[in-house]
Amino acid sequence: MASDPPAQADPVGSAIDSVSVLSEDSRRRMFAFIRRARRAVTRDEAAASVGISRKLAAFHLDKLVDAGLLRARYETPGGTRKVGRQPKVYEPTDAQITVNIPDRRHELLADLLLDAVLTERAGENATQAAMRAAQERGRQVGEAARHETRPGRLGPERGLTTCERLLDQYGYEPVRETPTRLRLRNCPFHPLAAKAPDLVCGMNHAFLSGYLGGLEVNGVRAVLAPEPGECCVRLGTGEAEAAADETPGGQ
Fold first, then answer.
1. What span, in angstroms and rounded, lies between the C-alpha atoms of 167 and 117?
2. Is 213 exposed, middle or buried (CB count within 10 Å of its CB: 0-12, 13-18, 19+)?
3. Which CA distances in Å does 14 have to 61, 71, 140, 165?
4. pTM of the entire structure?
5. 140-153 mean pLDDT
6. Phi-psi category of 234—alpha, beta or left, where left has phi over 0 and alpha has psi -120 to 50?
């Protein structure tokens, strides 16, 4: 089971930037024309598809390239070699744009469930396989983050600071309530968690527990602490969790 690469910084911001590039009408229509063409398209063809000049088309096409929606290269259409410089052609990239505010990670949940089905062991039921797959993936993500950042020994406060940065990239919207307690204000798996809370919240808890283990954060644990409209898990030291549980509503 391959581990996820470290999450890229601000994926929602990148997606919003890409969407904003497509807000211009001619640009959006050219992008649609190139996607439907299923081949490399020249500037002249792109310009003709929306009825604008070649120069203006080049401007819009380069904006789409900068946004990662198109790739450009020099090629003679049809493969016929001619004298002189080959024209610049454009084709779609494999980029997929999804904007969710707040952030949702349904693809991660689906991938974990697929891993569980494909790796279910003798003696495991489906739920046990899902929990194991989630914990293993979390550990892999934590190990990858530790390898990338090389933070050294992580006690509770430094460990939670590291978790805060990384979990923000996964859409959890972490809030540092105290030096030793981290609340996760967003559930990346909503609204699926509401449909099957025992399964989804259990997998989420297993994922975050594995993540703490892979990152090697000492003295911090993930505990189930459901709050309306938030993630069902919070991170903290044993003392912080005990104190929180003694207050009304866990707060």
1. 26
2. middle
3. 18, 17, 25, 17
4. 0.63
5. 93
6. beta
